Structures are given as C-alpha cells and as structure tokens.
Automatic annotation (TrEMBL):
InterPro entries: AAA+_ATPase, AAA_lid_6, ATPase_AAA_core, CbxX/CfxQ, CbxX/CfxQ_RuBisCO_ESX, P-loop_NTPase. The keyword ATP-binding applies. It comes from the Bacteria. It comes from Dethiobacter alkaliphilus AHT 1. GO terms for molecular function: ATP binding; ATP hydrolysis activity. Residues 16-25 have a biased composition (Polar residues). This is AAA ATPase central domain protein.
Length: 332
C-alpha cells in the first residue's frame, strides 16, 4: 500500500538558512504527525483473521450441524465485519455499530435454539457481546395476568439476558390477543430495551414461518428493528439420516444394514405425510432414544454378549407401533 501526503509550506531566510514560516510551523507539525501515524498503521503487520482456539471450537461445532448453509454464511459475515472494523479503527476510520437482532423462522427441530446458543458464545468470543449466554423464554414468561405484571416480568427476563441473547420462542403469541392483550405491553418493553441496550443485548424472535410473517406484518415497526431474517427449512430425508447417524455415533452405537434401511424408509414416509407439525431432528432424536431403550430391553436377560452386540441397533429396535409414531411426530 502506498500513501502519499501533500504538504504546502512557505519558508523564509533566517541566519542564511531556510526555515518554515511561523504561521506554517504548527500546520507542518500536525501534517507530519498524520503522516507518521499513517505510515505506522501501514507498516504494522495485519494477520489474516487469526482464530482463537475457543472460537475455532465453536465454528467447528456449527459446521458439524447438518445443512443450515445460510446460517453458516451469516456467521462468516459477522466475523469478517468485526475484523474489518478493527482494521478501520487502526486507520482512525468511522465504524457504525452492528445491529444483530434476528428473526428465526422454521418448524420445530430445525436447529433454531441450537444455532442461537452457539451464536451467542461466538459473539462473546468476538467481543460483540459481553457474556454471550442464552436465555430462552416464551409468552408465559413475559406476559402477566394483571395490569403492571407484564412490564415487570419482561424486564426481569431482559435483566437475565443482559450481555447475551434473549430468545423468544413462538414470539407471534405475544400479539395473539390484539391491541387490548397484555402481550402488546411486552412488545413495547422489549423494543425500548433494544434501543437502550444496543451493545449489551440481542433479541431473537423465533417461530413457525407463516405465523412469524403474519406477526411482523401486523407489527410493522418490529420488522425494521430486526434486520436479520433466517429461514430454517425442514430437513430432507438424507439430512435427517445424517443427523441420525451422528447421534448414533456420538452414543457409540451402530445401525445394522436392516436398521439403516428401515430408518431411511420410515423417515421418507414421515416427510411424505407433509404434516404441519413435522418435528425434524426431534423426530430423529426420539426414534434413536427409543431404539436404544428397546435394544437394552432385548439384551438385558441375555447371559452371553460381546462389545459388538452391545453397540448394534437392529431393525426390530427401531420398529414401532402406529401410536408411537404419532407421538414422535408431535412437537415438544
């Protein structure tokens, strides 16, 4: 990088030597100081985004999540912005604050809460948030039954979340009672807290996509305050299968070929039903945990068994009655 400074200075003869005129002396000193600072900033090495170990661990955790390409791209954008802001600061350039209030839209089990928890920790490592912890709430935690209760409850939750993220699940329920509902008071209290604590708090509103869109349409002032909108689509059959295999591996189990084939067909059947309450990764988790319990029941009375048998999940362990399937597809 080449930096050029243009100085205009007049001189006069003094003791047979050229000296800067008095009226230009202070201007010369100021200009030379600017040149020195600029040269120092240019000469100082600027490493390419070195990643601290704790931050790298969180990035790896995020990258291990199946799918969610848009979420991972957002994290890269935030990291880049923070780094460039620091470089601009070294050149004494202006930096605007980063507004990171978000809306997460998607069905249950698509990773919204998991992503929010990882994101909070990452923002703390990047020094965007002081603490980065996550406080999960829903309507009942914010809205009271009597006049004055709602503002107090909401402020209590905001206090707990200060320095981190306040995650409001099914946020659209705050407006379900119309203008006379106490939920409006909760929304007003939240908006004021967002304005008063720009550097200490991030709000994430989460819920089903259609309900969240309706909620934001009926509250136009909210949409502009939440510049980041992330969609969490339902997982495909292959993605759900990948999630299942990860869960199995983490628990040190293995699926037999028959169990794997049954699980693939069963997941596709659930997707094809196209139910509005399809619970995605929660369905997979429930299936795996149920299979592990059934495997234990199958093995507990056997006298002779080995390591491989203790690890194997068989087709019969995964098979379930229709009543069990109906329970598994219900959201938590």
């Amino acid at each position: 990088m080449k930096q050029t400074a243009k100085l205009r200075v007049t001189y006069r003869m003094e003791d047979n030597q050229l000296q800067p005129s008095p009226e230009n002396a202070s201007r010369t000193e100021d200009a030379l100081e600017v040149v020195a600072k600029t040269r120092q900033a240019v000469d100082e090495p600027h490493d390419v985004m070195e990643t601290p170990p704790n931050l790298q661990q969180l990035i790896n955790e995020l990258n291990r999540l199946v799918g969610l390409g848009n979420v991972k791209e957002l994290v890269r954008e935030i990291r880049a912005y923070v780094e460039i802001s620091r470089r601009r600061q070294s050149f004494q350039l202006k930096n605007d604050g980063l507004v990171l209030h978000m809306v997460f839209k998607g069905n249950p089990g698509t990773g919204k809460t998991t992503v929010a928890r990882i994101l909070g920790k990452m923002l703390a490592e990047l020094q965007v948030l002081p603490k980065g912890h996550l406080v999960e709430v829903e309507r009942a935690d914010l809205v009271g039954e009597f006049i004055g209760q709602t503002a107090q409850r909401t402020r209590e939750q905001l206090k707990k979340a200060m320095g981190g993220i306040l995650f409001i699940d099914e946020a659209y329920s705050l407006a379900r009672g119309g203008n006379k509902d106490f939920g409006k008071e909760a929304i007003d209290t939240l908006v004021k807290a967002m304005e008063d604590n720009k550097n200490d708090l991030i709000l994430i509103l989460a819920g089903y996509e259609q309900e969240m869109e309706k909620f934001l349409r009926t509250n136009p002032g909210l949409r502009s305050r939440f510049p980041i909108h992330l969609n969490f689509p339902d997982y495909s059959c292959n993605e759900l299968l990948d999630i299942a295999l990860m869960m199995i591996k983490e628990r040190q189990y293995q699926l037999t070929a028959g169990a794997l084939d049954y699980l693939r067909r069963h997941l596709q059947e659930q997707i094809d039903k196209n139910t509005s309450n399809f619970s995605n990764a929660r369905l997979v988790r429930n299936l795996i945990e149920r299979a592990i319990r059934r495997q234990a029941l199958r093995l507990v009375d056997k006298r002779i068994y080995g390591r491989d048998e203790l690890m194997q999940i068989m087709r019969e362990d995964l098979m379930a009655t229709q009543n069990e399937v109906n329970v598994w597809t219900m959201p938590d």
